[in-house]
């Protein structure tokens, strides 16, 4: 357990590493007063819940690593007062849901990793002014649909592999995306205009789905595409036109 005011006499701390320390609980205001802390590593512990106020007052915190715990719940306002966070990693936990306004204070967020959890939905969690958010990892969850606000973001790397997605629409993809992983879902077909606005897309992995056809003009706007993986699908008739016409190789 990390008790309240655990570091009250260490006001000069800039980084705290408590990885692999068997921590099970973080009390409210455990890090209160640490105005210089920029990095907190809590990965590889046995934390099951993040309560309100756990990270209050960490105005300069840039990196928070909570990966590889057994977190099942993160309460609303857990990150209140930590708006400077740029890198948030809660991967490899047991989260089934994210409170709708949990991420709202994190306006400086650059990287968000929620991969390898049990999430079924992210509805509304990305509908905020994340002007700096560039990397989102949502792979290895149970998502059956994409957050409707995703296309508003300036994300350049997006991982949605190993979920339960059945379809994607052009209106859901971020226009600035450069690397997109949607492998090992249940996608049966791709809309012809799916990549109409993704001119910067350079890496695309749609392997391990149930595609049986690639629309003829689907890659017309993908002028930057360098790597394409469509392996492990059920494409019975291979039409080379979508690839030859736009020099994808």
TrEMBL record:
UniProt keyword list: Leucine-rich repeat, Repeat
A matching Pfam family: LRR_8
PANTHER family: IG(IMMUNOGLOBULIN) AND LRR(LEUCINE RICH REPEAT) DOMAINS
Protein name: Uncharacterized protein
Species: Cryptolaemus montrouzieri
């Amino acid at each position: 357990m990390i008790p309240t005011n655990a570091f009250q006499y260490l006001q000069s701390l800039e980084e705290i590493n408590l990885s692999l320390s068997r921590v099970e609980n973080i009390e409210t205001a455990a890090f209160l007063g640490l105005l210089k802390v920029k990095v907190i590593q809590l990965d590889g512990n046995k934390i099951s819940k993040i309560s309100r106020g756990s990270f209050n007052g960490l105005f300069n915190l840039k990196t928070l690593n909570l990966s590889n715990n057994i977190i099942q719940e993160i309460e609303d306002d857990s990150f209140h007062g930590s708006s400077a966070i740029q890198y948030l990693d809660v991967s490899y936990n047991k989260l089934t849901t994210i409170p709708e306004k949990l991420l709202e204070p994190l306006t400086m967020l650059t990287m968000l990793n929620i991969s390898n959890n049990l999430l079924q939905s992210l509805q509304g969690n990305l509908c905020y002014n994340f002007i700096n958010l560039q990397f989102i990892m949502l792979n290895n969850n149970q998502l059956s649909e994409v957050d409707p606000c995703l296309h508003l973001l300036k994300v350049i790397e997006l991982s949605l592999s190993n979920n339960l997605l059945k379809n994607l629409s052009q209106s859901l993809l971020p226009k600035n995306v450069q690397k997109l992983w949607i492998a090992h879902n249940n996608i049966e077909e791709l809309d012809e205009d799916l990549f109409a606005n993704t001119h910067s897309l350079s890496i695309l992995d749609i392997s391990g789905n149930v595609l049986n056809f690639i629309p003829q003009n689907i890659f017309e706007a993908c002028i930057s595409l360098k790597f394409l993986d469509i392996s492990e699908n059920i494409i019975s008739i291979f039409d080379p036109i979508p690839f030859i016409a736009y020099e994808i190789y």
